[in-house]
Design a protein that fits this description.
This protein has about 180 residues and is an alpha/beta fold. The protein has a single domain (about 20-180), classed as Rossmann fold, CATH 3.40.50.1240. It contains 5 helices and 6 strands; from the N terminus they run H-E-H-E-H-E-H-E-H-E-E. It has helices at about 1-10, 60-75, 90-95, 120-135, 145-155; strands spanning about 30-35, 80-85, 105, 140-145, 165-170, 175-180. The protein has a 6-stranded mixed sheet.
Length: about 180
């Protein structure tokens, strides 16, 4: 037991591999991001998807963060990208501020955080997986979604504005290449 504890501590201290964003220009790769900083958890009771003023939204720091993500991608020579976004306003705004053109709303990556549907997580995760594996690789692909979606698909935790660079194999497996962070 003590040996496992020390192994766990050692793994925590390993440096995280920096994302080589240039691979986004190659087929079979995608960047999966949690929306930029929107303080709080979940949405207020009775929020309406069509009305941003009823939702938890990006802070000014979150807007700066989203612009920085776009700048980091362009610094890695990502000149164009297809950006897919959850329909939640904080995701759509993050996607817009990346400045790669109008984002494509993708219901498959909408949050299921407080869903009353017992199968919501399973259905959403499978739809997300299907979209990733059937993707069009003519341009870099970026997905802006929520923590619950990333955790369900990949098993990890991402802070606001962070995420994962993934490779999708010909067999449809989604493999994390590296973590993405502005830090």
């Amino acid at each position: 037991m003590l040996r496992q504890f020390f192994l766990y501590l050692a793994l925590l201290t390993l440096p995280v591999q920096a994302a080589d964003l240039s691979v986004l220009t190659q087929p079979g790769h995608a960047l999966l991001l949690r929306h930029a900083l929107a303080p709080g958890v979940g949405d207020p009771p009775g929020f309406q998807l069509e009305h941003c003023d009823t939702q938890r939204n990006l802070s000014e720091q979150g807007r700066r963060q989203a612009r920085q993500i776009g700048n980091k991608l362009r610094a890695a020579r990502i000149e164009s990208a297809t950006v897919y976004s959850s329909r939640w306003c904080r995701c759509m705004e993050t996607a817009e501020l990346l400045a790669f053109g109008k984002p494509h709303p993708l219901p498959a990556i909408n949050s299921f955080f407080r869903s009353r549907d017992a199968d919501a997580k399973k259905v959403a995760t499978e739809a997300f997986r299907q979209h990733l594996t059937a993707g069009d690789d003519k341009a870099a692909r970026i997905y802006i979604t929520h923590q619950v979606n990333l955790s369900a698909l990949l098993g990890g935790f991402s802070a606001s504005g962070d995420g994962y660079l993934v490779r999708i194999s010909e067999q449809g497996n989604i493999n994390i290449i590296s973590e993405f962070s502005l830090q």
